[in-house]
Amino acid sequence: MSIKSAVTISLVKEAEGGPFVFWHDLATGCAKAAELGYDAVEVFASNASAIPVDELRQLTDQHNLQVAAVGTGGGWVIHKWHLCQPDAASRENAKDFIKGIIDSGAQLGAPAIIGSMQGRFEGEVTKEQAHEYLREALNELGQHAKGAGVPLIYEPLNRYESNLLNRAEDVVPFLGTLDTDNIEILADLFHMNIEEASIADGLRAYGSHIGHVHFVDSNRRPAGCGHMEYATIATALKEVGYAKYASAEAFPWPDSDAAAKTTINAFKQYLT
Ligand code: LER
Ligand code: MN
Fold first, then answer.
1. H-helix or E-strand containing 207?
2. Which residue positions in the chain have pLDDT lower than 70?
3. Which of 30, 151, 195, 269 is the most buried (most CB within 10 A)?
4. What is the CATH number of the domain that holds 246?
């Protein structure tokens, strides 16, 4: 088993300026991904019903691609919803939003990612309380995803995006307190570059928990356009037996086509 390549396509107007390679056009994104030899696409849509399941199935079949994952961050980007809000009704709403995306993704065999929807502790919500809210949510949503036949992917973020769990040394013990066995970790190399003393050691600490990788450089530009040390990262991923997706979640720098090409070249150089 070897690592597979994926590239992001964002369909979310409100996310413009964010770190996604292709934008607003699934047909073009899928055609270009296939032309460059990617194995899969990762799709970011505003909500569950904005994931065009039939169209995506048709396009990925046509181009011999898979859907690597679907994002849930639209709830945060568009509505500022998240899983650690102080009132129970808002947290339920955030969970329902995520369940919808889990179900849409599952129809394509794709797991959902909880990144910015995890939220943060602030105001009346203490860190301990927020960890409890996150634990409850991951238990419930993890089991929901299990029922739909997919894992649920939790993405630790850097300190400027969340204050819940930023480093592998925080995340791994937290995983041990969950009741569900259906949570996998998204190792986003950009976030890890900010938080980990050593990205390779962080990857080793995550070990078999890693279910997805955001393959990107230190400055959020495409892999190869910053100062990330991919050789040591590749060694660590191979050591832990990682054999899922390395997905380009990078700025479309200098443009989408070049970002996709640069990333697949780095993928071939380091991860195959
Ligand atoms: C989402 O995958 C992510 O990495 C966030 O930093 C996007 O804001
Ligand atoms: Mn990410």
1. none
2. none
3. 30
4. 3.20.20.150
